[in-house]
Amino acid sequence: QVQVVETGGGLVQAGDSLRLSCTVSDRTLSDFAMGWFRQGPGKEREFVSGISWFGGSPYYADSVKGRFTSSRDDAKNTVYLQMDSLKSRDTAKYYCAVYRGTHYDQYYYREDHYDFWGQGTQVTVSS
Question: What is the mean pLDDT of residues 97-125?
């Protein structure tokens, strides 16, 4: 079993920045691709960003492109989501998830292709 824990959420004002962290335990992070999803109030969970095993350019939802940046530090078994220029519409619970399968370039945005999920961390952006 892979344990996934997100941290770093909080209450900020519009225009502020936050950095979320996601730590994977009991396995080696370099074995996985990783994704970030979020679920806002009254909304379905949606893809935010994904990062593959071997670096390269991360994937981003159009709504966060240019404002959010994903990165990974395999030595620390941790991935990060740097969120800049936050907007009230970014208010959501943010989840980190582990992708173990193949064809990540095709399925990175599909939450049903992720195997293990964290409990989420709340991000609230006040306007």
Answer: 95
